[in-house]
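From the methods appendix. Each design record in this collection lists the tokenized structure first, followed by the designed amino acid sequence. Records were kept in a plain field format so they could be parsed without special tools. The example shown here is representative of the layout used throughout.

RECORD:
FOLD TOKENS (225 positions):
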């Protein structure tokens, strides 16, 4: 008999949002990306990133706010993204950054631009970043400023989610494997911030993990000043 898969419930997200309030860093990162994106933070612009949440997360957030609504695709590409979502997920849209309710942000809003990085052996090693945003998200070029409190809450939040949800665990394990393939092709190390806030570098082509330092953290144009 096949093993029953676990799925998060609205209660899973309630538990997470009860404590996860740490900003990524003590500076307002949005002021660095907004001027290059018509005055809108890149991660709050559905033209750059369509917010996706689990239906369980949607159900929970709808009990606390009217900020979120269903996302309406605006072109073929955005329609395709919506069509390809798994049954447990939903594309959503908030009322815009000027009306953002900090306490009612989604998990993706609270964690962007980071995702939980897993080794090939399935160990949750720390935080890595969504590399498609290297040239638009200022935080990726300033990872040394990430606060320990954010790291602690980020990892605690995902550990709660993974304990309740098998699909989410698989998604991020697969995403970490994709990052290894992309960075191996680029012949670049993947920088990971571990639980203690230390830098680890995942060597390309399966050549292991080595300790790094803050100076090994990458910078990308136009944030490489
Ligand atoms: S996380 Fe990145 S994209 Fe979002 S506001 Fe900060 S710098 Fe901009
Ligand atoms: S909820 Fe706030 S942080 Fe999230 S996309 Fe909307 S404006 Fe941005």
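DESIGN:
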């Amino acid at each position: 008999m096949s093993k029953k898969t676990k799925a998060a419930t609205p209660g899973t997200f309630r538990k997470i949002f009860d404590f996860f309030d740490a900003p990524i860093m003590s500076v307002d990162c949005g002021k660095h990306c907004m001027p290059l994106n018509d005055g809108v933070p890149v991660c709050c612009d559905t033209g750059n990133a369509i917010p996706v949440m689990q239906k369980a997360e949607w159900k929970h957030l709808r009990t606390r706010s009217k900020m979120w609504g269903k996302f309406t695709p605006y072109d073929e590409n955005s329609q395709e993204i919506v069509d390809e979502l798994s049954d447990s997920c939903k594309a959503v849209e908030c009322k815009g950054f000027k009306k953002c309710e900090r306490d009612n942000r989604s998990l993706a809003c609270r964690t962007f631009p980071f995702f939980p990085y897993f080794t090939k052996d399935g160990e949750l090693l720390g935080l890595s970043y969504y590399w498609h945003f290297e040239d638009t998200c200022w935080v990726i070029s300033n990872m040394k400023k990430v606060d320990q409190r954010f790291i602690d809450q980020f990892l605690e939040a995902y550990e709660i989610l993974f304990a309740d949800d098998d699909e989410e665990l698989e998604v991020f394990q697969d995403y970490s494997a994709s990052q290894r393939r992309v960075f191996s092709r680029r012949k670049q190390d993947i920088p990971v911030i571990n639980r203690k806030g230390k830098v680890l570098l995942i060597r390309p082509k399966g050549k292991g993990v080595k300790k790094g330092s803050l100076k090994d953290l990458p910078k990308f144009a136009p944030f490489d000043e």
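APPENDIX NOTE: Residues 10-216 form one domain.
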